[in-house]
Specification:
By secondary structure, the protein is mostly helical. It is built from 21 helices and no strands. The longest helix has about 50 residues.
Length: about 500
């Protein structure tokens, strides 16, 4: 699979333009608030575009069509989208106002206020490890796509994508990330719509043929209200039922959009609490529309490769990429491939900037202030930084952006020597964070008796239980966030009560 020189030029120009855009946006970055939070002055619609683009990776762009393309595929995946909308409504009402109090830089500073520095650092470290592990593997998957297009070795493709993303994130900070995300959202949505329109033009019966094919093959099936199957509880083992999609999706979103620094950072960059709330709720609607578009693309691809140009594929996620290269007109191939890599770069740039933000806010700044002034962790957090301090932290943030970028490139290269099952397992572990962090946040919000030791025990317990369930049972992935949050909350609450009771008994 190779592309024309013109399409290659379109792809290269697009990636260079993203770097140039980052340089232009970052020309006036002078302090930490500007670099990490855009001066807390980003419009709500840019936050909306950035949230959607950030959570859309290359895997989403290529894999969601594969869900509906599969032999027994359909559109039940949309049930997850409904859960995402519900979860964001709760995030907007309950958690966004909490994050908007004060002048914080990291989601985990909330835990410092409630429990103490150790809980904050543990949660932040959990985010940093799993975020960079997961996004390093996503960089590897994007590199595979680039390798097939350019016919260049995989390691070089991983390095190319990683370096391009590091450069524009390094210079532009969160402003470059957010505005680039908006551009890249438009690019990959336009690429998806144009691909669908071109696909339909291949059908002699046009849209009517697509509709009839979808109805005859059951691919327009959306809702699945089953609770039991003949052998086991399908609601626990099937990922695409109404219950796992709506309930599991809502709780998953509470974790990813309510405690993940990569998303919370965008709320902190908004002009007001109302703007942040508007952005997160609207993002759920846009994601639902996006899912519907890519699933419809999958139905159209199934119709195309069964009725127009019969062909078998070893993996369903390859089908959209194959159609792009083989059947789209010259020029549009380059644009659509740019959309594929736009999805990857938006996620990776957000990951680098949020990782730098968490590392500076939760580790380096408290340590530096404590060392300079002999302050405790809590006193260091409350002390406002002067201009000299802000300039120092800006430099450190940029260096950490490079460092995390190199770490993700190394993980991506290392993944090329691993089996696909190991990579899937590692991505699953990276996804544990949402439920665990949600559990500890709820522990702090909903209880008065919980303390730092209990919170730490809860988080460790959540990781142990999730690992056992993931690798020892057939429980479907949408339920993992629920299990992780419930385990973390329950273990943390019980541990707090038992430790308190033991201390009273000793007294």
């Amino acid at each position: 699979m190779a592309i024309s020189s013109f399409d290659l030029a379109v792809l290269v120009i697009y990636m260079l333009a993203m770097v140039a855009f980052g340089l232009w946006v970052g020309r006036d970055q002078k302090d930490l608030a500007g670099y990490l939070l855009g001066g807390r002055d980003m419009p709500w619609w840019s936050i909306l575009g950035s949230i959607v683009a950030t959570e859309t990776s290359t895997a989403t762009f290529l894999s969601v069509p594969g869900i509906a393309f599969a032999v027994d595929g359909d559109m039940r995946f949309l049930q997850l989208g409904l859960g995402l909308v519900i979860g964001r409504l709760v995030v907007a009402v309950v958690l966004v106002p909490l994050f908007r109090r004060g002048e914080i830089f990291s989601a985990y500073e909330i835990l410092n206020t409630r429990f103490g520095g150790a809980s904050k650092r543990f949660a932040s470290l959990l985010f940093l490890v799993t975020r960079n592990l997961g996004d390093g593997l996503r960089l590897f998957l994007a590199g595979i796509a680039l390798e097939k297009v350019l016919s260049v070795d995989l390691v070089s493709c991983i390095v190319i994508l990683g370096v391009f993303t590091i450069i524009y994130t390094f210079f532009g900070g969160i402003k470059a990330v957010i505005w680039s995300d908006c551009i890249q959202l438009v690019v990959y949505m336009v690429g998806g719509v144009l691909s669908l329109m071109i696909l339909v033009r291949y059908f002699p019966g046009g849209w009517q043929q697509l509709v009839e094919f979808g109805q005859e093959t059951g691919r327009f099936h959306v809702f699945d209200f089953r609770v039991r199957s003949t052998e086991t509880f399908s609601v626990l083992t099937e990922p695409f039922t109404f219950w796992s999609g709506v309930i599991g999706g809502a709780v998953l979103t509470l974790g990813t959009h309510g405690t993940d620094q990569m998303i919370v950072q965008r709320y902190l960059a908004a002009r007001s609490t109302a703007d942040a709330q508007r952005a997160v709720v609207a993002s759920g609607v846009v994601v639902l529309i996006q899912f519907a578009l890519f699933l419809l693309l999958g139905v159209a691809l199934a119709c195309f490769y069964s009725q127009i140009h019969p062909r078998a594929f070893e993996h369903n996620d390859e089908v959209f990429a194959a159609f792009i290269v083989d059947y789209l007109p010259v020029g549009l191939v380059g644009l659509t491939l740019a959309a594929v890599f736009a999805a990857a770069m938006s996620t990776l740039s957000s990951s680098l900037n949020s990782s730098a933000s968490a590392a500076v806010s939760d580790f380096y700044q408290p340590w530096l202030l404590a060392r300079r002034n002999g302050l405790t962790d809590k006193e260091a957090e409350e002390k406002s930084s002067d201009d000299e301090m802000s300039g120092n932290l800006l430099g450190v943030s940029r260096k950490l952006t490079i460092a995390f970028g190199l770490i993700q490139i190394a993980i991506g290269i290392g993944a090329s020597y691993l089996s696909s099952s190991v990579i899937s397992d590692a991505l699953a572990i990276a996804g544990f964070t949402a439920g665990i962090l949600l559990g500890v946040f709820l522990l702090g919000i909903l209880t008065n008796s919980a303390h730092q030791r209990g919170a730490l025990i809860g988080m460790v317990s959540g990781m142990i239980v999730l690992t056992a369930i993931k690798f020892g049972t057939s429980v479907a992935w949408p339920w993992l966030a629920i299990i992780g949050s419930v385990t973390t909350f329950t273990a943390g609450y019980l541990a707090s009560r038992l430790v308190s009771a033991g201390q009273r008994a000793n007294n």
